[in-house]
Amino acid sequence: MRIVCTVDFDYPLPEELIAQHPALNRDDSRLLVLDRVSGRIAHRQFKELRELLRADDLLVMNNSRVIPARLRAVNVKSGGKFEILFLRENAVNDWWVMMRPGRRARAGTKIIFKNRHGRLSDTHASVIELNDEGHRRMHFSGTPDIRNELPALGETPLPPYIKRRECDRFAEDHERYQTIYASADGSIAAPTAGLHFTEELLRTIRAKGVDICFVTLHVGLGTFAPVKAKNLSAHKMHPEDFIIAGAAAEKINEAKRNNRRVVAVGTTTARALESAVNGPGGSIVAGNGQTNLFIYPPFKFQIVDALLTNFHLPRSTLLMLVSAFAAPEEARGRELVLLAYAEAVNARYRFFSYGDAMLII
């Protein structure tokens, strides 16, 4: 039976369990372990992950780096303020963005950006197009490439459920809303399952014999856009860019050939891997691509054997993917995951981007 209703993925969550700050140390987070065969749940600490991995596992991580994609600007004519979130690059100085308040950003609107200190910069932009979703296409001027200006103009694009005072906007998030192994610029939200890793933890995991490789999926609207459709079949995923290098594809395919577990760190890694299955016998094909793969129950996973993830928003595509993984090719994964979430709420786990983690094996 295929689950088709978005409301099936709702659950109650006390607001105080939404983590507003990261743990003092990255691996101080808690780790809920769900055995998807037996349904058993165990409560561990994230720094104990090494004990839960097998010596021949392959750990696959998303090395995309979050760009400072939230900017402040003013209307050239009226002086009205805008908050802008970069979404997708069409070409140099040509981007789709979200603007707030959108009603003031009609086609032809000209704006000037502020720097991180609140002073006006030399960078301008014009709204040249609107789409059906209310996003604006902007052309930038005053710079050869707006990407180069983002460190001076942009802020860490925290999700809206993380609240910051004006004076705290640049404090801890510049470092902590980024994995320690991030290297490929392009995401507008963090691949949050990886936020828990430290250099020391990775060292001990490698020392056990666990192999590690990296893929890239630049997190965009496809990952965090809410599901507004009543029926899941009507939801359309926004495309996201991914890259799987030849060496990584070779490691992944070799692990599958030898019946070793492929452990995906995060839903974005899982989507990249399952999107790249296009070779003989269901093997991974290296290269650059785009994915709008929407994973929800029931779904047959061909690559991922274990999934490390955070606790996700109600009715989100991420919760739907996790539910599909909890019982591949079946619908009962939703029940397993929501029972685990209920136990996490009772045990006062911390939820969402800066919250605790979950391992499904």
Describe this protein's structure.
This protein is an alpha/beta fold. The chain contains nine helices and 17 strands. It folds into two domains: 6-66 and 175-360, 3-Layer(aba) Sandwich (QueA-like); 70-155, Thrombin, subunit H (Beta Barrel). The protein has helices at residues 49-52, 146-153, 173-176, 199-207, 221-224, 246-257, 267-275, 317-326, 333-346; strands at residues 30-34, 41-45, 58-62, 64-66, 70-75, 81-91, 94-100, 110-114, 120-130, 136-141, 184-187, 211-217, 240-244, 262-265, 287-291, 306-310, 357-360. It has a nine-stranded mixed beta sheet with strand order 2-1-17-16-14-3-12-13-15. Strands 5-6-7-10-9-8 form a six-stranded antiparallel beta barrel.
**Topology order in helix (H) and strand (E) letters:** EEHEEEEEEEEHHEHEHEHEHEEHHE
For the largest sheet, list the strands in their spatial order. 2-1-17-16-14-3-12-13-15
Low-confidence stretches: none
CATH fold topology of the largest domain: QueA-like
Number of strands: 17
Q: What's the structural domain tally?
A: 2
Name of the top-level CATH class of the largest domain? Alpha Beta
Instruction: Give a quick account of the main beta sheet: strands, pairing sense, barrel closure.
Output: 9 strands, mixed
Query: What fraction, in percent, of the residue positions are helical?
Result: 10-25%
Q: Structural class of the secondary structure composition?
A: alpha/beta
Task: Give the strand content.
Answer: 25-35%
Q: Tell me the radius of gyration.
A: 21 Å
Mean pLDDT: 95
N-to-C span: 23 Å
Shape: globular
Q: Please count the helical segments.
A: 9
- CATH hierarchy: architecture of the largest domain: 3-Layer(aba) Sandwich
CATH superfamily of the largest domain: QueA-like
